[in-house]
């Protein structure tokens, strides 16, 4: 399986109301130093309506300006719609909303 497909499979497992970091996804995909590659994979995501890319944030809870489906404002709206809490300075409250990374093996079509 390609790195990008691993990324999509992992991101599909992030539950509503929780977020993961680019670094977490890279680690789970087999290359802990590939957080930028995770960003590129999500930007090229061919399954835009299936893979919840908006649930991936920077390690400090910041949102990305490059969120490819409508920018930082839409990403925040999507996350707030799922119950994700934000700090006063506009970052995701990582203490409350971080995904625990309990990844399970997925078969095709589970996303």
Radius of gyration: 13 Å
For this structure, what is the CATH class? Mainly Alpha
Please estimate the helix content: 25-40%
Give the oligomeric state of the chains in this entry, treating copies of one chain as homo and distinct chains as hetero: single chain
The CATH topology corresponds to: Arc Repressor Mutant, subunit A
> What is the total domain count?
1
| Number of E-state strands | 2
Largest sheet: 2 strands, parallel
Quick take:
With 111 residues, the protein is mainly alpha-helical. The protein contains 5 helices and 2 strands, in the order αβααβαα. It has one domain (3-97): Orthogonal Bundle (Arc Repressor Mutant, subunit A).
Describe this structure in words.
The chain has helices spanning 3-11, 22-28, 35-43, 71-81, 94-97, and strands at residues 20-21, 56-57. It is mostly helical. The longest helix is centred in the last third of the chain and has 11 residues, at 71-81. The protein is globular, with a radius of gyration of 13 Å. The mean pLDDT is 89. 36% of the residues lie in helices and 4% in strands. The two termini are 15 Å apart. It has a two-stranded parallel ribbon. It has one domain (3-97): Winged helix-like DNA-binding domain superfamily/Winged helix DNA-binding domain (Arc Repressor Mutant, subunit A).
């Amino acid at each position: 399986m390609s790195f990008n497909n691993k990324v999509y499979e992992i991101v599909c497992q992030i539950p509503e109301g929780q977020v993961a970091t680019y670094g977490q996804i890279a680690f789970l995909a087999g290359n802990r130093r590939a957080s930028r590659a995770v960003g590129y994979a999500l930007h090229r995501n061919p399954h835009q309506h299936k893979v919840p890319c908006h649930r991936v944030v920077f390690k400090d809870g910041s949102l990305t300006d490059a969120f490819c489906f409508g920018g930082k404002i839409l990403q925040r709206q999507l996350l707030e719609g799922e119950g994700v809490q934000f700090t006063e300075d506009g970052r995701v409250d990582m203490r409350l909303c971080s995904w625990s990374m309990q990844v399970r093996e997925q078969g095709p079509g589970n996303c």
